[in-house]
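Narrative of activities, Objective 1.

The group set out to show that a structural description can be obtained from nothing but a protein's sequence at a throughput compatible with the screening campaign. Below is one input-output pair from the validation batch, recorded exactly as produced.
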Amino acid sequence: MRLLIVEDDRDAADYIARAFREVGHVADQAWDGDEGLALALERKYDALIVDRMLPKRDGLTVIGELREKGIETPVLILSALGQVDDRVKGLRAGGDDYLPKPYSFSELLARVEALTRRRGARGEETVYRVADLELDRLSHRVARGVDEISLQPREFRLLEYLMKHAGQVVTRTMLLENVWDYHFDPQTNVIDVHISRLRSKIDKGFSQPLLHTIRGAGYMIRDR
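Output recorded for this entry:
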């Protein structure tokens, strides 16, 4: 999943972002309502985690403006205000779920996963298939034929991105931005190393290779 965390408490935001990254997700951060709104309009996210009390533009205003502009990305509201009336206001403003502070990361993760599952039920693809290779975004299960494949979190994100764009050339820049969350070239062979590891896991021992290097362009997952 690619998430946006809009939270002005930097320690809390860093903790949440780090925890999501450790389980294999991409997490962007914004420190105030204006920045959060701009990022949510500019980029595509699977879910937004928005603190209710924010500088410049409060969380409910951010959510309301996103809904007015037709952005239907699921939103989980975080707030120290946990009374029933507060939760009702958050949901009526366009939030999909409301989690009072303090909270545990395990509950936050479970709620975000539930939001993305509900979105998947409305048409967002959650399982990718190319030939006999299958990736389930929600359960983090990868299998080729009857063989289940164990991937590290970064390898999973790399394969997920490639399979999401199956049949298309994926450039190194696209991978750096969407898998590593880099917006610059680190001048390392990190992509080559991970592609090599991934290829050995999904193609080794199979007669039909699926992960191809497109010389001078990038990489592609295809079934022929």
